[in-house]
Each structure stands twice: as structure tokens, then as C-alpha cells.
Design brief:
Layout lengths: L4 H10 L4 H18 L3 H57 L1
Helix pairs in contact: 1-2
Length: 97
């Protein structure tokens, strides 16, 4: 945000404030405003840090998804083996008892 100290100072002088005091007020307000504002470089740095954090999180999540995929394949394999075993037992009971 651009702050026009001259315009602000002129407004104060038009309202009856002494020129020296008007200038002091303008500079004090400008310093207060600028101290709290983030620069484009500040924002770029924060965005860079955020992207880095997100990339790390994505890497961790992909690793966890890979682990879950492996576990699910094992569980499905066991379920299939149990189903085949049960089916063969049913066939034996129905046809060979």
C-alpha cells in the first residue's frame, strides 16, 4: 500500500496543524504502516516455504498410500484363499460325502 506522506501532511496543515507537527505525524504514520506490511519478497518466501511443506507432505502421503496398497493386496489375497478353501469344502461336503 502506497502512503503519500506529502498529501497527508498537507491535509493536516489545512486542518490547522503546525507544519512541523504535520510532517512528524505523516512520517510516524508511514513508518507504522510500513512496519506491518509484507513485501512481495516476504510473500514469495512464504509461498516457497508452503510449497516445500506441501511437497514433503505429498511424499509422505504417497508412501503411506503405498503401504496401504500392499496391506490391502495381502488382505484380499488371504480372503481369496479363504474363499477358495471354503468353496472346496462345500464341494466336498455336497458331492463327496
Amino acid at each position: 500500500m502506497a502512503f503519500d506522506t506529502l498529501k497527508y501532511s498537507e491535509s493536516l496543515k489545512e486542518a490547522g496543524v503546525d507544519e512541523k507537527q504535520a510532517a512528524a505525524h505523516a512520517h510516524a504514520l508511514r513508518n507504522a504502516i510500513e512496519d506491518d506490511l509484507a513485501s512481495k519478497n516476504d510473500l514469495k518466501q512464504e509461498v516457497g516455504l508452503l510449497r516445500s511443506d506441501m511437497e514433503k507432505m505429498e511424499t509422505r502421503l504417497m508412501g503411506e498410500i503405498g503401504k496401504l496398497d500392499t496391506v490391502m493386496k495381502i488382505v484380499l489375497g488371504l480372503c481369496a484363499a479363504i474363499a477358495v478353501g471354503m468353496f472346496s469344502m462345500v464341494i466336498k461336503v455336497l458331492f463327496f460325502s
